[in-house]
Amino acid sequence: MHERDDLSLFFSGLKAYLAQLENSRSKLTHLEQELQRARQQGIFIAGGGSGDCSSGGALAFDLEYARWLDDHQRHINNLRVAVIADMGDDELRILVESVLLHYDEFFRLKNLATKSDVFHVLSGMWMSPAERFFMWLGGFRSSEILKVLASHLEPLTDQQLMGICNLQQSSQQAEDALSQGMEALQQALSETLAAAAGAGPLAGAGNVTNYMGQMAIAMGKLSTLENFLRQGDLLRQQTLQQMHRILTTRQAARALLVISDYFSRLRALSSLWLARPRD
């Protein structure tokens, strides 16, 4: 009886997830309409070409990310068809490089969004809940992705295995260094704000001057947060590029499919979780 109930719950959640997928395009259209209304009301400054969210804020980035994800799925579908059809290396290489270039476009969009609203990018609110659970500095951990790939790339030559191991080790070291830098930034900000806590606007003129000085220092420290996010994305981008250099074309194609499937499953898990019965 319990198994039947579990299956019923599973299929109920799955049905909700599929319905969500079917409605994704209408949601994207709604988001575009919201952005257009916001621009007409003067909330956003008219930007340059397509993809420029430097003046569009969080909503513009969410829209661009939704478009990017839709395009990414088409790239992945084309790559999957080519792998299944055992397409030649020359044709497959073009598709692999196309996916990598599309990732480059994603990092470009994130860089623009970081300049506009660093906290929105850092919060990960543009991602699904399960993706946010694994998020590090506004994205995935390169070292964790390499672990996910480890069992899907065999057989590897000794040289390839050494290259992947070295890449994972260097990625982990870079992640640790950036994490320590973020902790140091948080500590420095906390100390600066604590020093300004007793010198608010209700204090004397001297204290107000001190308060403004401390807040200016805090703003200066906070500006380095953008650099941490850019460094995190640079690490992710370089990891994908290095992985491509280490692997054969066919292995790189498999790796990109595995990465895409991994994040697709996280998004599916999020949808199932949100659609679960609350009783």
Automatic annotation (TrEMBL):
Query: According to its UniProt record, where is this protein located?
Result: Nucleus
Q: Which GO terms describe its cellular component?
A: nucleus
Q: Which residue numbers delimit the DOG1 domain?
A: 58-276
Under InterPro entries, the record lists:
TGA_domain
Question: Keywords, A to Z?
Answer: Coiled coil, DNA-binding, Nucleus, Transcription, Transcription regulation
Which spans of this chain does the record mark as coiled coil? 14-41
Q: Which domain of life is it from?
A: Eukaryota
* Cited Pfam families: DOG1
A single GO BP: DNA-templated transcription
**GO MF assignments:** sequence-specific DNA binding
Say yes or no: keyword DNA-binding present.
yes
Q: Which PROSITE patterns match?
A: DOG1
Mind telling me what this protein is named?
DOG1 domain-containing protein
Lineage of the organism: Eukaryota, Viridiplantae, Streptophyta, Embryophyta, Tracheophyta
